[in-house]
Design brief:
Number of domains: 4
Number of strands: 23
Organism: Kineococcus halophytocola
Keywords: Isomerase, Magnesium, Metal-binding, Phosphoprotein
Structural class: alpha/beta
Radius of gyration: 23 Å
Domain Alpha-D-phosphohexomutase alpha/beta/alpha: 12-133, 169-274, 283-391
Family: Belongs to the phosphohexose mutase family.
Helix content: 25-40%
InterPro entries: A-D-PHexomutase_a/b/a-I, A-D-PHexomutase_a/b/a-I/II/III, A-D-PHexomutase_a/b/a-II, A-D-PHexomutase_a/b/a-III, A-D-PHexomutase_C, A-D-PHexomutase_C_sf, Alpha-D-phosphohexomutase_SF
């Protein structure tokens, strides 16, 4: 009798694998996914005459070592040699995929609670594997094996499985991209949230990997690796998870605070007063540095930003001599446009930052190093430096439960455009991702815009609004919410 099976459509999403352990993800399931990954991704892109290879890493979750080992067995069962790099951040796995030029798999559920785990897959050179680029085929092949009970078990695997420590190489690569040795000494509080930032920050910003010490005094918060997250969720996008860092920075007399999510691919910044620096401001700050480098090299600097980032981002990019390119929300869209445009850098409102010099993959640590360098190269506090990039007032993302997202969205657009027309004003409407309504500055009204996007998985509408000032933003935010929540009542 075959073992009970899971519906992989419930765990294999648009961009990754994510589910609870052991009811949705166990060794048997991930072994099948590993074998399917080898068949669909690794073997077809292996050059003729060369041995097929892949790399696997994992985070600090209790289930990660067992699941990643089962996955490696599944990959090896198809004749692929597997390098296991052990504990790493997601950008550490992307580094390994780029550095070794092989496909990779990272076991992590990012900031999800302890009972979750997941897998992020990539092709050689850290190129993403999503629903339309192989993930659906991986799901379908693995599902067929699970349904038939003929799951590859790794017995008699032809591929070899070995171990390699790439932490020092990862840290050295990041340091080669940003020079932190020439500026003033900084005191930095780092909140790792018991996630992988507690593993990578001491190697990159400290001397744990055997690299020379930097002019940084790092104050650690929750560096102990613990996938049960005993102190707070490793999700800095939720303001409550920044509170400890916001208190520690002024208490320590620090210059800056950094907060990483569970797999340490995202980084959030707070200034010396403990006030958050928006990811849009970080995007613009890093973009300025990358644009200057491109111009010095005689290249055309292109910077990608998603449509939720502040209007300040494209304005500042253009003012610095760069070309801003606007995309939909989501890493697959960012990475696709980066490749199409040859972009040097890309940023999202969610604190994902992408670098051409990092195989166009996202790395929060490299973004943090750019902010540290920008701060250390001048004498002002971070609050004053960040003010150059915080030009407008933003609402942040506000979710509302609705029964019919499309109908509610159209009702909002109709009502707002009618109101604006009655005031003698005009707006621009685009549908690149949801609906964005933009009001340019006029003699009568300041600039404002809002975006409404429906969730792909829940009956939610997500609102982001921005205005030239707090009062302007609040007016348009409240107007839209009144319509959205009136329709959903």
């Amino acid at each position: 009798m075959s073992a009970p099976t899971v519906n992989l459509s419930s765990v294999i999403k648009a961009y990754d694998v994510r589910g609870t352990v052991p009811d949705q993800l166990d060794a048997r399931v991930v072994r099948a996914i590993g074998a399917a990954f080898a068949e669909v991704v690794v073997l077809p892109e292996t050059p003729a005459g060369q041995g097929a290879k892949a790399v696997v890493g994992y985070d600090m979750r209790p289930s990660s070592p067992e699941l990643s080992a089962a996955f490696a067995d599944g990959v090896a069962s198809r004749g692929v040699d597997v390098t296991v790099i052990g504990l790493c951040s997601t950008d550490g796995l992307y580094f390994a995929s780029g550095f070794l030029d092989v496909p990779g798999a990272m076991f992590t559920a990012s900031h999800n609670p302890a009972q979750y785990n997941g897998i992020k897959l990539c092709r050689a050179g850290a190129r993403p594997v999503g629903q339309d680029t192989g993930l659906s085929a991986v799901r379908d092949l693995a599902q067929s094996w699970l349904d038939s009970g003929e799951v590859p078990d790794g017995t008699g695997a032809v591929g070899a499985v070995d171990e390699q420590d790439l932490l020092k190489a990862y840290a050295a690569h990041l340091r080669s991209l940003v020079d932190l040795t020439g500026g003033r000494r900084l005191k930095v509080v780092v909140d790792a949230g018991n996630g992988m930032g507690g593993f990578t920050a001491p190697a990159v910003l400290g001397d744990d990997a055997g690299l020379p010490a930097l002019p940084l005094d790092v104050v650690p918060l929750y560096f102990e690796l613990d996938g049960t997250f005993p102190n707070h969720e490793a999700n800095p996008l939720d303001p409550k998870n920044l509170l400890d860092l916001q208190a520690a920075v002024p208490a320590e007399g620090a210059d800056i605070g950094l907060a990483f999510d569970g797999d340490a691919d995202r980084c959030f910044v707070v200034d010396e007063k403990g006030a958050p620096v928006s990811p849009s401001a970080v995007t613009a700050m890093v973009a300025r540095r990358e644009i200057a480098k491109e111009l010095r090299a005689g290249r055309r600097p292109v910077v990608i930003h998603n449509l939720i980032t502040s209007r300040a981002v494209p304005e500042l990019v253009a003012a610095d001599g760069g070309t801003p390119v606007r995309t939909r929300v989501g890493h697959s869209f960012i990475k696709q446009r980066m490749a199409e445009e040859g972009a040097v850098f890309g940023g999202e409102h969610s604190a994902h930052y992408y670098f051409r010099e990092f195989w166009s993959a996202d790395t929060g640590m490299l973004a943090a190093m750019h902010v540290l360098a920008a701060l250390a190269e001048q004498d002002r506090p971070l609050s004053e430096l960040a003010a150059e990039y915080e030009l407008y007032a933003a609402s942040g993302e506000i979710n509302s439960t609705v029964a019919d997202a499309a109908a509610v969205t159209e009702a909002v657009v109709a009502a707002i455009t009618e109101t604006v027309a009655a005031e003698g004003e005009t707006v621009e409407v685009d549908r690149l991702d949801g609906v964005t309504v933009f009001h340019p500055a006029s003699a009568a009204q300041p600039m404002w815009w809002f975006n409404l996007r429906a969730s792909n998985t829940e009956p939610l509408l997500r609102l982001n609004a921005e205005g030239a000032d707090e009062a302007t933003m609040a007016v348009i935010r409240d107007r839209v919410l009144a319509i959205v929540r009136g329709e959903s009542a």
